[in-house]
Amino acid sequence: FNISTSGNYVSSHVFLRLIKNQVQGGFFSYDADALKAKLLHNPWVKTVHIRRVFPDSLNVVIQERQPVAVWNKKAILTHSGAVFYPREMSKLDFPRFAGGFDSRYIILNEYKLISQQLLPLKLKVSSLSLSERKAWMLTLSNGISINVGRGEVVDKIKRFVLAYPHLKNANLRVGAVDLRYPNGFAVKWVL
């Protein structure tokens, strides 16, 4: 057996064990559809391609899903907006997204825009949520929580990015920022 997989989330040894258990008999007698279905049963597997190589080999190419965030504490969201439910999530270190199921594409898009804006500050989004009232909340990798409120998310984050170097130079640590004001924002300092 030749197995090709990135192995980021599922070890190739796990797949090899599954294949060995599924392929009973000879090169021509195994059920390719059953093997593919068994491999696709793993929630991390996106696609499977199986090819027989004469005289006695089997090439299996497994493409894993590419996660972006933990979705509503119980699922994983991919770059394409797909949601899947792995068995084990405790060891995953991804941003946490929360919102209604239909809002996942909006949240994913805003996450990408916000992440781009935060690059000069060397900060990342650790959580991002969109409430039923369409209000945005996020937490940064340095622990600062930001209440963005509704509308104009990109413009409000730009304001924060421009002011952050000045806030960082203060003798106090920023705990939270409220960007809901039209001409400024409020800062909660950690004493």
Gist of the model:
By secondary structure, the chain is α/β, with parallel strands linked by helices. It has 4 helices and 12 strands; from the N terminus they run βααββββββαβββαββ. It has a 9-stranded mixed sheet, covered by helices on one side.
Uncertain spans: none
Rg over C-alpha atoms, rounded to the nearest angstrom: 23 Å
Main β-sheet: number of strands, strand sense, barrel status?
9 strands, mixed
- Structural class of the helices, strands and pairings? alpha/beta
Assembly status: single chain
Estimate the helix proportion, in percent. Answer: 25-40%
Helix and strand element order: EHHEEEEEEHEEEHEE
Number of helices: 4
- Rounded average pLDDT: 90
Q: Please indicate the percent range of residues in DSSP E strands (runs of 2 or more).
A: 25-35%
Shape: elongated
End-to-end gap: 61 Å
Give the number of DSSP strands: 12
> Strand order within the widest sheet?
6-5-4-7-8-9-10-11-12
